[in-house]
Amino acid sequence: MKSTVRRIAAPLTALVLAAALSSCGGGDDTNSAGKKTVTLWMYPVIADQAASDTYWKKVETDFEAANTGIDLNIEAQPWDKRDEKLATAFAGGKGPDVVLLIPDQIPQYVKNGSLEPVDDVVTPDKDKFLPNAIPGLTVEGKVYGAPIYHTVTTTIYNKTVLTKAGITKPPATWDEIKAAAPKLKAAGFTTLDYSASTESTLNLSFYPLLWQAGGKVFADDGKSVTFDQAPGLEALTFLKTLWDDGAIPKTALNNGNAIENQPIGKGTVAMGFTATPANAATAAKGWGDANIEVGAPLTGAKQVGYGIPGGLSVNAGSKNLAEAKKFLSFMIQPPQLQALSKATGYFTPRTDAKVEVTDPLTLKFGPALQYAFPGEPNPAARQIMSLLSVEIQAVLTGKKTPQQALGDAAKQANDLLKR
Hints:
By secondary structure, this protein is α/β, with parallel strands linked by helices. About 40% of the residues lie in helices and about 15% in strands.
């Protein structure tokens, strides 16, 4: 057991990177004491460095005490360029034995054979997880991640803005938003915060509207897109109507899911519909704690919000697969999940693991977990997101109609999927 959790600083020089990769799970499978080694690449899900060190040190100590033949090596990695570094490591036959991944990262590594299924790890406790925790880490019927935390987004409202517009009931449906927009405009406010920057993720902008309309990004087989069908048109038309009516701030074109120094943070927008607890905390500082209200995800044809599990995945090239899976089994038990919830402020993915979140505002996000959808994993998901983002901007700026834009994006996306 080591005395401290190892940290890899960013940016890495080529020499340090090479050394780091050579020390990972694809290399030697035992240490000098003859113990099996399991290397974990962990990212800063615990923002406070001291708290992170304390948590992972205890994980290391407790796991090694329960598994005396295994040496757990935790390497703290930066978020920056994480996919590039991991892909390089896997391609070189190296990489960690275990790594933290989220749903939209997993398909690309499954496609190139880098990940080992972990159904045998999660199956014994499968019915104890939140409805979309395990499905969010599943590709083509096999589970490739063991959930250790769950995020959630939902709607937040500025009560002062609503009151000044004479709105007593916060708009919770698309129809209610359209009805509230003229009143808010007359009072000098916009209605809905939106991020239309091509750099921002559609999981926090257009996709929730698509899902609320009853649509999907991909066909069930993942070989074509369906966002150009009727629900997608309904979602983009809804967005365009609000834009044309002045119900969305024009600064949305350059906003990448930011709150601070944006209209919503300055108190000129009535509501945001994909807010994280951190977003809510930022908004509360600007509006005042008494003026923020946390609601449920919006309802169109369906009520859906976005939220994802973070999962531990196993390198298919690990020489210690059994030991790596033992670590996953250890990590998904309530004691570890509860302590992680307390340290991160995230929710636990298990229904039998107590949520240790202490912040009162964050706790108000808890009811939205039942509506949390983890997105639609696909190896080309991020590329297609980039294609569609450009077309959505074209709609908002009046260069294309919603039907034209969705059709053009679908053609490009389907061509990409056929390659």
